[in-house]
């Protein structure tokens, strides 16, 4: 089996990820080859279908994908190089109830992850759109979105993420930010994860625009 032949059983999932890539690129959240996407295609042993590294996510080809195992390595020889951030997908996919992971690089995520970094995260609270997150039934919800320092040492970042996703008392929910880098979100399947990323981006944009509005209002009051 060559690297690409092994992808044959996963054509429906590949097509779904290509559609997601086109949508996220069009929204401006996955430009310049940034972002990576994955779905779980097997358990026991874990198998993840993930984007190959360095591809234009708005124009993913049918063979721009890799199947990896829980060590982040190709499940068979001869495949393309998987995403540089494969281990972040593996760690999320190893958690119960996670069937897909999406990572984006929107302008708002990039800026807010730096603005709120010194506080360790940011709160999303009071917005009706919070009900787009799985299991949330009221706008009177307080979602804490953590921010990790950016690094090229993905194995060490993956371990930090694992600690927070497996924290029994207060596990991270819905997603997290990486400083000046972007957003990771997950869900039970690709459909839910796609919704989570739209909800998260919407709420983060609200947060950013509210700060701008408050700044403009206080400037107007001073003048
Ligand atoms: C514009 S490059 C961004 C990358 O360094 C990385 O953060 C990213 O999101 C895409 O990496 P990739 O290896 O293609 O999955
Ligand atoms: Zn990235």
TrEMBL record:
Chemical reaction(s) catalysed: 5-(methylsulfanyl)-D-ribulose 1-phosphate = 5-methylsulfanyl-2,3-dioxopentyl phosphate + H2O
Binding-site list for Zn(2+): 103, 105
Keywords associated with the record: Amino-acid biosynthesis, Lyase, Metal-binding, Methionine biosynthesis, Zinc
UniProt GO cellular component terms: cytoplasm
EC number: 4.2.1.109
Gene3D superfamilies: Class II aldolase/adducin N-terminal domain
UniProt cofactor note: Binds 1 zinc ion per subunit.
InterPro entries for this protein: Aldolase_II/adducin_N, Aldolase_II/adducin_N_sf, MethylthioRu-1-P_deHdtase_MtnB
Cofactor(s) this protein cannot do without: Zn(2+)
HAMAP family in the cross-refs: Salvage_MtnB
Task of the protein: Catalyzes the dehydration of methylthioribulose-1-phosphate (MTRu-1-P) into 2,3-diketo-5-methylthiopentyl-1-phosphate (DK-MTP-1-P).
Protein name: Methylthioribulose-1-phosphate dehydratase
Organism whose genome encodes this protein: Pirellula staleyi (strain ATCC 27377 / DSM 6068 / ICPB 4128)
Gene: mtnB
């Amino acid at each position: 089996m060559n690297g690409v032949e092994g992808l044959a059983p996963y054509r429906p999932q590949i097509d779904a990820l290509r559609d997601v890539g086109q949508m996220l690129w069009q929204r401006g959240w996955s430009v310049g080859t940034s972002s990576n996407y994955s779905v779980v295609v097997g358990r026991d042993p874990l198998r993840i279908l993930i984007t190959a590294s360095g591809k234009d996510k708005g124009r993913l080809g049918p063979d721009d994908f890799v199947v990896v195992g829980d060590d982040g390595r190709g499940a068979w020889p001869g495949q393309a190089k998987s995403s540089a951030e494969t281990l972040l997908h593996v760690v999320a996919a190893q958690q119960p109830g996670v069937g897909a992971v999406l990572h984006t690089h929107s302008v708002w995520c990039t800026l807010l992850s730096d603005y709120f970094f010194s506080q360790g995260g940011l709160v999303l609270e009071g917005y009706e759109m919070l009900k787009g997150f799985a299991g949330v039934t009221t706008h009177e919800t307080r979602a804490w979105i953590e921010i990790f320092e950016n690094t090229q040492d993905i194995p060490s970042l993956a371990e930090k993420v694992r600690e927070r996703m497996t924290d029994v008392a207060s596990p991270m929910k819905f997603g997290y930010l990486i400083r000046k880098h972007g957003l990771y979100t997950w869900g039970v399947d690709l459909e839910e994860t796609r919704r989570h990323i739209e909800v998260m981006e919407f709420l983060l944009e609200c947060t950013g625009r509210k700060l701008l509005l408050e700044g403009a209002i206080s400037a107007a009051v001073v003048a």
